[in-house]
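Hi W.,

Here's what went into the run:
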Amino acid sequence: MWLVEARTVFSRARVRALLAVLLAVPVFLAVAVYLAGGPRAGEGPTFLDRASHNGVFTALAGLVVTMPFFIPLSISVVAGDAVAGEANLGTLRYLLIRPAGRARLLAAKGVVTALFCLAAAVDVVLAGLVAGVILFPHGPVVTLSGTTVPFLDGVGRALLASLVVGVSMFGLAAIGLFVSTLTDVPIAAMAVTIGLVIMSAILDGVSQVAFLHPWLFTNYWTAFTDLARDPMRWHLIWKDFLLQLGYVVVFGAGAWARMLTRDVLA
Amino acid sequence: MLAIAAGAIAPSVTGASSPPDLPAISPAQLLAEVASAKAPQLTGTLSWTANLGLADLGTIQADLGAGAGGASSTGFNPLALLNGTYQINVWLDGKTAEHLSLSPQPGQEIDLVRNGGQAWYWDSSTMKVSHLVGQGTTGAAPAGSSAVAALTPQQLVDRLLSHVGPTTSVSVPSTVYVGGQRAYELLITPKAASGTTIAHIEVDIAADAPLTGTPLQVAVYAAGQASPALELGYTSVQPGPPAASELTFSTPPGATEKTYHLGRPSSTSVSGTGSAPGSAGTTGANGAAVKRLGSGWTTVVSGNTSVLSNPTYQTELDAVTTVVDVGGQQGRLFTSELVNVLVMSDGHYYAGFVTPAVLEADASSQP
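Here's what came out:
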């Protein structure tokens, strides 16, 4: 059932289109920097000024650029669609006729959404690495700490960063799944989910509500940049993972409660 | 359910909940331990928090060449440290080498490395290295390193303890865990509460070898505030020699290095080069003499500056200061929880950990 679910989601045209857009962003970024030259040191989005120094930073710059909006948007689409989409098409009750049970169906949806989170981030980094290696040097990588590490070490860090970003989207995926169980209109679930991302990001920027910041699911999204330091700093990443776990527990439980008590009419 | 989940995701608090069991010690004994403590040898993480209740410095910071976050083409601006919480990784070898590393914002790292007669300052956002070379290569630290050393709790406490005198009472009310180490809490309180903005200062001093006597945390509380206005302390400490690779720096490919040869190891020669970042000069802006007025906790430093009376800064100053009248002369008062500064229209300034009333009294008593 999980395999079927994964195959259904990843074979949808819109999911493939989302992944293709995510793939395109770092490639465009790399081509633009290649043709026009990157920003001066210290300017532009984080890492973009280094993108032309090393392919690894092309990938990391791609992650920085897509992380605030493109990746959350694609996750909102997939998570918001997960249950509401089936309800909207009228296929939810057929799914529930199977003896698998509602909880297992929800679990399968959750696992596949989580898988999509990882796929989206890995997608960006792989595209960035390929574009970066083709267009820019791929020698030893200068870390943020001013030390130099071998290229393969840098590639490993970029892939690790993609996994970290993927996991840091789990909270959002859980929120999306919960919202998706509330409605039969998938577009509404998607809009609410991406709206929450924007709201959280805005609150994160307002210093007057600093006491809220450690609780916002977007707060540690940039923690993956600590992997470009030497030695790698895990402090904020662990904090982020703990926070995401909290969101998964709360909204996962909410989705589960809603799913079990829901009247499936369509 | 929400409450349980909230408990589960609560940001973890370092340290154990019950205070460590340590034999009683008198303040004098504890101060003697601090005085005789060797320079610590450790790898650790410092947390720096500044909560000064400052007016928004955004405009002035931008004017001085850096955004509020500290990043711009001109690199990190130390003024950013006046607000917020920062994690600083520390490597101290206890003799002639140390390394501090700070990430002022995601994707940026600042490193200060000192090894013997050399020091490096690295800003990843600008890929620039300032390399300071002292006159002698052994022993004597170059001037730039004073900026490095000044950031450790040890230096702060030495400075604080020089103020312990008849105006101060010290006590050891409790014990705490700091960065996983058992520590005594030394409470330093001004005897006369009037005049100063400082309510009390807490210094947590390591109780166990090999760090015995090493201050692990300093917290300065402003009058009427429940949380510290300034706090610098270890969140993790590993005693023992740090990795040698962390105690040196070599300029990576693609970075630009500027070397400064320091003829005379004094802090003025550093600020004299005009581009040694991180070592904000403590002398007056024009090199004018700085006077001390008063004594004890109500000490006020006074001097003369033309920078603040520069007309181009007036709009910015209007945003962060209030205009006061002192004995018929106009002055600008900059206030925060801890530090207050009064700048008179003739360019005289008065600053200290004192209430505005003390500054005004000092200003009006000066000719």
